[in-house]
Structures are given as C-alpha cells and as structure tokens.
Amino acid sequence: MITIFSHVFAITGMELRRVASQFVVKASGAVLHQLLDRLLEDGVLKDEERYSIRKEMLTRASKARRLIDCVIKKGHTASKKLIDHLQKIDPVLHHELGLTSAQPGMSVRPTPFVPIVEVFSKTERRRKKNKKENEQVYPVTQTSLRNRVALLITNVKFSENLIIRRGAEKDEENMEKLLSNLGYEVVKYTNLTGKAIDEALIEFTKHPKLKQTDSVFVVIMSHGQLGKILGVDWKEDKPDEFPIDNIFKHLGSKGCPALIDKPKVIIIEACRGERGGRVLVSDSPNTADYFSPPGDLEANKFQHLPLEKDFICLFSDMPEIIFFRQNRESFIENIVNVFRTKSYQKDISQLFEEVVHSFTHTGFLGRPQMPAIIRCTLIKHFYPLTGIRYVASC
After folding, report:
1. Ramachandran sector of residue 303 (left: φ over 0; alpha: ψ -120 to 50; beta: rest)
2. How much is the CA Rg of the chain, to the nearest whole Å?
3. Which pLDDT band, with edges at 50, 70 and 90, does 101 fall under?
4. Is the domain of 155 the same as that of 257?
5. What is the C-alpha to C-alpha distance for residues 352 and 62, in angstroms, rounded to an integer?
6. Alpha-carbon gap, residue 392 to 390, rounded angstroms
7. Segment 352-370, tens digit of pLDDT
8. For residue 281, is it within any domain?
9. Residue 41 lies inside a defined structural domain of this protein
10. CATH code, domain carrying 271
11. pLDDT cut 90: percent of the chain above it
C-alpha cells in the first residue's frame, strides 16, 4: 500500500512540474487569489508565504510562478492539494492543463472534461434558492473571466510646456498590475494625441474578447480641461483634445453592441497641470457639471436600448501639484490601495465610494477637486474580483 501511495503522489508532483509553464501563462489573478486562500487554510502555505506571493509589485505571471514553485518544493501532498483546489476553482483550466485528481490507491487516469453546466450544478441549486439576490448581480462565468480585457491610456510628456505629470509612469505600472490581478488583459497606450485616443477607443470596441467578456475597464490619465482630455500635442493656440463624452459614445449600445448589458468601468484622471501659478481650467462648483449626459437617455431606434447604460465613472481633475506639496497619495494610488484591501467584499460602486471617502481625510473636503462618481447607469451590483463566487463557489 505504501508503494501505491508513493507512486500516486510521485505522479502528482510530476504533473505539476509538467504543467508549470502553462499554469503561469493561463492562471488568472482571481484564480491565484483563491488558490492562495485555500492553500493557507489547508496549512500548505504560511501567512508570510502567501503575503510574499501576493505582493503588489509582482505581476500576475510572477505570482503564478512563485506559487507553483513554492508548492512543488513542499512535496507531493501539497502538489495534490493545489491540483484538487484548481479543479474546483477553475475546472476549465484544470482540464486544459490535462491534470488529474486521483485519490491514493486508485488508478491514475486523465480527468474527463465535465461540461460547465454540470460542474456548476451545486452553484445553480444555490442560485435558485437565492434567485432574487443573484438577479441583482451582473453575471460572471469562468469563460467571461478568461476573456476580460481593459484599455489603459497614459499621457506623460507633452509637446507644449505643460507641467510633466510626475509619477505618471508609476501610476501606469500600478494600474496595469491592478487590472491584471483582476483578470483583465491590458491593452496599453502611452502619449497619445486627442485623435489617437479616439482611434484607440474605437479599435478597442472591435477587440475579439468583448463578445465573451463580462465587463471592461477603461482608464485614461492625462491633463484635462472642462469635459476634455488633453492630447500630447496640446497648445494654447492649437488645442489637441479628446471629448470625454466620446468614451460613452463609443462603448454605448450603438457604438459597441458586444458590451450591451455588461458593466463598463471608466476611470479618468484629467489632472490640471499648473504653470506659473496659473491653472489651465477654472474650478467648477460641481465636478459632475463637467459632464452633461446626452440630452436623451430615452430609448433610441437601436434595438430600443438606452444610448448610455451599465456605466460607472470615477473622475478626478485634481491639480496634481497638490499631492506633491502635501505628500499625499496620488489618485491612482488610492484606487489601487482600496481595491487591494476591499475588492473581496465590495462591489464597484462601494469601491469607488471608498476612494472618494479616502480624500475626505486629506484636506479636500468640500473642494471641487475631490474625486466624484459620475454618470452611473449600473442596474446591478458588479464585483470585479468576487463575482466569481456566484459561479464557482464550492
């Protein structure tokens, strides 16, 4: 019997080594987080090991590599537990890797592919019992998680003598890691003109993954004016601008049918650079006034759907110099910190509210520069990270 046990466990350890490279490529951030939690509960990982792997500065691939290397070093029992948990958390990936989950003493055979409908049968029974609750949550499936995609545009250097957006590269890096950890493939652009920003958005609406994704993030960071984002060729006598309304136009029901009924999360940092003590745009009494929603949000002729639906936008036009004078965290750093600590329990609206609330303690209370949640047309709750629990909880 000992020989059989050793043989099975040896095969398990070899299996994990065999699929290590593919695991690193294919395991999503959401799957990695769940594996870390379950392996900690099993005693396979220690607190410090989980913390080391979940470090913010690590990319998704680096986390996956550290996790699988750590588990393999712990032996066959630890390897088997990871494989078993992966089968429950992401049966599609488990099948694609060709893994097995045999019990000691049983013959080791490839795990047959089980249709997702069968894999999630327990979840479906639970969902029927909580139908009302689940109807209020945007659906997330294993397939949609694997097709998540986000657009990230960062303008740092401008041709005119505008203030350089100090720290913008770090913000871009942190935002890219956050989106990757949430399971999104990041389409990234740097230093675009206003026209190029518009073209990048239009191109994004044609991305092949949009048909199967459950959501998208669009993040744009640049200088800004009233209702506009400045392109890198902006000059006082020759404006180079991108209308923020175009984001909602291009991603709306008519501009992007693939995203109908799916949450579209917009984050805009249109910070106002300062030159010689002069702010590029004057303060508005209400940040929400920067945007006037389309005059008619009524149904149009396009499949009788609202032009603007399932959006939420977090907007900041803070003069960036404030952060450096007062040693404050940047707008993006606040977002990353909130998502890192709260995304397991809160939906996107609550997460954005946490970000806004974080500025009420930094001297901006009552100021028009405070971040604002605008043009929210979500009709359900959207959980960027924990939405998977409604689909694959075991």
Report:
1. left
2. 23
3. low
4. yes
5. 28
6. 6
7. 998 888 776 544 444 445 6
8. no
9. yes
10. 3.40.50.1460
11. 20
Q: Given this model, what pLDDT does residue 218 score?
A: 97
Rounded Cα–Cα distance for residues 294 and 305 (Å): 14
Do 245 and 297 lie in one domain? The reply is: yes
Reference 20, options 64, 73, 59; nearest CA is: 64
Query: How would you class 115 by CB atoms within 10 Å of its CB: exposed for 0-12, middle for 13-18, buried for 19 or more?
Result: exposed
Structural domain of residue 170, as residue ranges? 142-275+293-391
111 CB-contact burial (10 Å; exposed 0-12 / middle 13-18 / buried 19+): middle
Domain boundary among 114, 133, 153: 114
Catalytic residues: 223, 271
Model confidence over 236-276: pLDDT tens digits? 778 888 999 999 999 998 899 999 999 999 999 886 544 43
State residue 102's pLDDT score: 43
CA proximity to 263, closest of 392, 164, 118, 375: 375
- CATH (domain of 85): 1.10.533.10
The number of distinct structural domains making up the chain is: 2
